[in-house]
Amino acid sequence: MEQDHSALKKMRVDDVADSVMTEVPVPATASSMNQQLFWSQWQLLDSILPTGGFAHSYGLEAAMQSRIVNNPEDLRLFLIQAMENVGSLLLPFVYCASNSPDTAAWVKLDQLLEATLTNEVGRKASTSQGSALLRVAASVFTEIQALQDLRKTFLGSTSVSFHHAPIFGLICGLVGFDSETTQRAYMFVTMRDVISAATRLNLIGPLAASVLQHQVAPDAERMVQKWRNRDVSEASQTSPLLDVLQGCHAYMFSRLFCS
Q1: Closest of 191, 193, 241, 176 to residue 221, by C-alpha
Q2: How remote is the C-alpha of 97 from its chain's centroid?
Q3: 129: which residues sit within 8 A by CB, 6+ positions away?
Q4: Which of 5, 92, 117, 224 gives 123 a disulfide partner, CB atoms 3.0 to 4.6 angstroms apart?
Q5: At 172, which helix (H) or strand (E)?
Q6: What does the pLDDT look like over 25-46, one tens digit per residue?
Q7: H or E element: which one contains 145?
Q8: What is the chain's mean pLDDT, rounded?
Q9: CA angle (56 as vertex; 255, 217 as ends), nearest 5
Q10: Smallest Cα–Cα separation from 226: which of 85, 96, 93, 112?
């Protein structure tokens, strides 16, 4: 009996080993691809991504030195206006670039935004962040050939300026995000960067910054719903004072941020 039991056990072990050796790789399913998109989305929004966004304050530093923003309540109002401005002016470029992730269409959007932005400080901030984002995205998402071609063809070229909004939309579209997720992600990046700047300017502390981010999240969603899915022909400036403040940044005697 013991010999029969040992022989049966050995046969089972051999069967398991054979099944492991002959196992056929399972192709990637739609579910696994969607899961990978989640990881890519979180990586693009992660503050560790070296795109240079934290070198800019969206005009907050100039607003503080001009005594327009003096306390946390002023900061909250400034942040809401900044998100409104981003929604009305830049979200259409993000939407069009992500909805049609095509190089030719992106070039036209980039050139149009270059002609639209009259604020020199804001324009330089946009192009520096955009070119950095392309370098990082091409280095991270090596499986996307379109990003490699984009970097080889245009990086260092004078035909495009690499403004942040169109290149953000293009990259998200190539990675596989839908246009609504892309627009919401861009609004989140704006909110995150302004609050981060406020923390480093010692306007609020880290805990208060987290509380503020949670409090203004409904406002951010409201801005997305208000300005989403618009064509670039509808892009407009809703807070000209913020544009003026950002333009004054270059004239400040001492400054922590680039813009």
Answers
A1: 191
A2: 13
A3: 51, 52, 53, 56, 164
A4: 117
A5: helix 164-175
A6: 444 555 565 677 778 778 777 7
A7: helix 145-154
A8: 83
A9: 125
A10: 85
